[in-house]
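To: structure subgroup
Subject: Chain for Friday's discussion

All,

I'm putting the inputs and outputs inline so they're searchable in the archive.
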Amino acid sequence: MLRFTRPLLYAARKPSTGITGLKVHRDPVPELKKTYEDTLQALSAIPQSSVYRQGTEALTLHKLKVLEKANGDVAAIEKELDEGQIEESLDIALDELSLAKKMLEWKAWEPLEEKPQPGQWQYFGKEATASTSS
């Protein structure tokens, strides 16, 4: 029974996030978990050699472990994630999910279609290089 009342108690105690445009979520923990899982699912379609997939997957897995370790305690999740309020963490997670889908659409891991112009990747007098993945 307590499991079902926890979201109601959370919503009753927190009338506002204090951030314009960011509403209090009635039950943020399951929604955050689902968003992390959806992000991992989207990342699984990107090649494992992609640096974006490697970094984002590691970060998302870490955040998912934080959720599981906190066992529904919103204050512990907020403290461990250190992203502000849990609604902000949910907003960040939704943005990352959206970006993962766009990266899949853009196929950002593939080589450039055209060779870059000479000096295109030169900043502050230094040549910017990136390793290519096959």
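Points worth raising on Friday:
The helical segments are 2-13, 28-43, 51-70, 74-81, 86-106.
The first strand starts at residue 122 and ends at 123.

D.
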